[in-house]
Amino acid sequence: MSLDALKDRLPDYAKDLKLNLSSLARETVLDEQKKWGAFLAAAHAVGEPATYAALAAEAGEHLSPEAVTAAKAASAIMGMNNVYYRFTHMVSAKDYRTMPARLRMNALANPGVDKADFELWAMTVSAVNGCGMCMDSHEAELRKHGVSAEQVQASVRIGAVVNAVAAVLRAEAA
């Protein structure tokens, strides 16, 4: 399935999502790897089959096999970390924040792509999953790597639109 086919599956009431998918696909503040890795990581994170299939196919045309693997790894590890760190941040007892997570996170140290790209994809997924603590951590790392606020915002906009597309398609399938 292509990006155009995905847009065609959206009902008329979701026209803004169609328009946003188109404009984000043409986004120039991110290079192709950052942009399509963000699309793929977000689609993987939301897990809606049609959204994932279309965006994986489209991303595959712009990403190396290593970048595809890294984008999926960002989604996978953030799926775990976002739940854990959201818990430590939201629970009233503060002692959980100082306890070691004791969760394997090797993908963060050795992502197989440029560290800034992986961090950006982790930011995208953390925004989709709603983990403020993780977003703060990734945003700080991205700034250290010279990633601009506009680039971070673009990745989060991608995550927001992909999440909304997936939600609409899930609701329409119900």
Task: Please provide a written account of the structure.
The chain has 174 residues and is mostly helical. It has a single domain, classed as AhpD-like (Up-down Bundle), CATH 1.20.1290.10. Helix content is 74%, strand content 0%. Helix 2 (15-25) packs antiparallel against helix 9 (149-173), helix 3 (32-46) packs across helix 5 and helix 5 (65-90) packs across helix 7 (115-129). The longest helix is centred in the middle third of the chain and has 26 residues, at 65-90. The protein is globular. It starts with a helix and ends with a helix. The model has no long low-confidence stretch (mean pLDDT 94).
Rounded to the nearest angstrom, the radius of gyration is 16 Å
Beta strand count? 0
Compute the number of structural domains: 1
N-to-C terminal Cα separation, in Å?
Answer: 21 Å
CATH homologous superfamily grouping:
AhpD-like
| Second CATH tier, the architecture | Up-down Bundle
